[in-house]
Amino acid sequence: TSSNWIVLTTIFYPTFAVKRLLLLDDWMLVIIADRKTPLSDQKRLDYGIVQYIPENSYARKTIGYLVAIQCGAKVIFETDDDNVLKDLFIKVLPKLSSPIDISKAAFHGKRSSFVNIYGSFGEPNIWPRGFPLQQFKNVTEDGWSSLRRNDEPISAYIQQFLADLDPDVDAIYRLTNSFRLGHIQFDPQQTP
Fold first, then answer.
1. Of the residues 61, 127, 135, 188, which has the fewest C-beta atoms closer than 10 A?
2. What are the boundaries of the signal sequence (predicted)?
3. Do residue 98 and residue 189 come from a single domain?
4. The last residue of a domain, from among 65, 85, 105
């Protein structure tokens, strides 16, 4: 087995994105399929939390994390069934990353402790799923650039990467900007 695991939820047959993940040599894949996987099988897992996780919920991915950890995961790559890897490679930063590993770091502004990182990559009018809408105005007024040069080591225990085309955006954004979905391109070269 591997210490590198990929966790995703889906209700579909294997997509192109999932098939690409299966081509990665040093990674194991666990898929939580909600109601499509018999719920009785999920409930037989020895995790007390399973009974509290609602069906048809993103939170079911928690079951996948627990399975991966129980199977020896040291690194978990969380993704979705529609996020296609550009390269057949997943970059994992060291847990204590130097300024060479992470040359820029996010910071929060004066009026909000939240950061909308999407604006720093050329998409200032998009916000990620889970971003508190009541903080949106504060973050906007503090300025979109949320990155600064990094001069010290950073503990990088949780790492997330941008997903072009159809990123995890807030439901209100999806409802009000559906014409953009499937066409969003982040700019990794944008200068903060």
1. 188
2. 1-17
3. yes
4. 85
What are the residues facing 75 on neighbouring strands? 4
Both tokens of 189, joined, read 């070269």
Give pLDDT tens digits for 71-91: 999 888 888 888 888 888 888
Check pLDDT > 60 for residue 155: yes
pLDDT value at residue 30: 93
Say how far apart CA 27 and CA 2 lie, in whole Å: 6
- 141 pLDDT higher than 60: no
Q: Cα separation of 36 and 10, whole Å? A: 9
- The model carries a pTM of 0.72
7 vs 79: CA distance, rounded Å: 7
Per-residue HEC secondary structure of the chain comes to: CCCEEEEEECCCCCCHHHHHHCCCCCCEEEEECHHHCCHHHHHHCCCHHHHHCCCCCHHHHHHHHHHHHHCCCCEEEECCCCCCCCCCCCCCCCCEECCCCCCEEECCCCCCCCCCHHHHHCCCCCCECCCCHHHHHHHHHHCCCCEEECCCCEECCCCCCCCCECCCECHHHHHHCCCCCCCECCCCCCCC
